[in-house]
Amino acid sequence: MVSAVAAHLLFFIVSVNLIPTTPIVEEQPFQAADRGAGSALGKSRKRVFPVPHTEEPNPISEAYGYCNSPNRTEQAWEGHSPADYKLLSVQVMIRHGDRYPLYSIPKTKRPAIDCTLSTSRKPSHPLLNTFISHMGLGGRGHWDSPLSSVPRLPNHSACEMGELTQTGVVQHLRNGQLLHQAYKRHNLLPSDWLPRQVWVETTGKSRTLQSGLAFLYGFLLDFDWTKLTVRHQWSTLFCGSACDCPARNRYLEEEQRRQYRLRVSDTELERTYVDMARTLGLLTRQLRAANPIDSLLCHLCHGISFPCVPMGEGGTKACLTMAQFAVIRRQQLDDEVDRRRVGLYRKYAILAMYPYLNRTATKMERVARDNEAGRQPRAGGEEVFTLSSAHDVTMAPLLSALGLEEASFPRFAARVVFELWKSPPVIQGQLKKRASKGEKSKVKDGELFIRVLYNGEDVTFHTTFCRSHDRRASQPLCPLKNFLSFVRRDMFSLVNATSYQEACFRRPG
ω into residue 123 within 30 of 0, thus cis? Predict the structure, then answer.
């Protein structure tokens, strides 16, 4: 694992990465934007894959998509399946909602944002008031020790660095409510659900804990605190006891060097930083170290004018501009293209996310066994709903590891959903009838299938493990066995290995 000192030095060198790649340590600020909505009040349906175009993407429109303003309706395709299929389990990873910047720009005023919660302030939500009240009962819940002292609600009238905003809370109340509506007809969780059936985990940051609680409240209204255990993930990679992987760290360092080389070769970006530093009366290296894109994005998402500084005694001001912001955003989008071309990040992502994906697969297998015909269900049940509240440095490698490299970068309150489905039983007579028509059915009694959704859109057939599956055949969903083979063996072919252990610890040739 990269030491804290090494990680700090790497970040200082590459202080404005396209994508945040450093695992385990603090999340890096915004790097690349959603390829969805064109403006803050754009279309209600946000695409997670870019629409083919002949013109260059608009960096400002992309940035508004990243903000993920919660004041628009959104279609969720979770919970959709062929008739009579049974939903067995749902595993969700979310990125925390809108947050205050992690960095401040020297000589400028910090954005004036109130991080307390109030139904009289926009954006709000019908559940906000009862959510606030319900969080006051959190002492009845069970908490892993690192989390017991973390506040369950954002509570500073002047936001602290990295603190979840009211916008972030509302984003996840909406997310949870969307999935509640999507799954309520499937009876995923009974009203008398058991403690083992719901698994909630988060990193130790207040913004992930609070985002997870907001999502859970929207999904499971007025949930019983006494049944809930909130578990701590010490690594942003959610790798548990399998975090040690020297090869992953090497790929990360190579990827950061690639980012650095591309950025320093961008003369327009360099001129822009020089101009911005001159405007503020800073050295260029001071401005770079302050990572201004992080603060500027907060201004943009909250409709606050970009920072200004006084000029002389005449009361005039010099301000940072949208044009300068657009140059930084443009370079980040260029870097995203180069990242896919070179392929180092994908190798890093495979090793970074194997532990999480392997745990996801294992949970699916346990639930599937518990639902086998004629089998007595396990006492206490299996984990049918899992919520992992994470960061962009968690979700970005997850998307890449799944082969969704064309997907938009994780916006605030992004979500990835894994659904496990079981087909209905097919009686012998139906099979004979099909065979008599010359059609050989591939669907057998009670087969298992997986769906993967990103921000409400079904991306299953864009994943590496199901891209080649013929969904027009008699199997309209992706077989679970494809996912299991991918996680347990096939994904390591990209790094010329057959297992996680071999890939991580094989000496470089």
Answer: yes
